[in-house]
Amino acid sequence: MLIPHPLLGPRDAGEFTYLGDATLLDRPDWQSETAPQEFYDYVYTRENPPGEHRELWYHEYGDRSWIVVTRNVSTHEILGAELAQDVAKNKGTA
Prior knowledge:
alpha+beta
């Protein structure tokens, strides 16, 4: 599988480590009154619907960047990739 790295172009998936659902970038506020439940959901609750999914990948054997890959988990087609830091900035969490 080739992953379209936003800076380096197409790279073999063997260069990357899969780290899970990209919602990990949406870490709850630890000072919230509902923080215990929010962190429980953040750590343990995951949906696994078919179709388009955003995943967090680490370019371990390359430039050591974190990227968010949008992939159809039913067909394994990769629809795009962007730097995780750009995703976090767009959400206002960086």
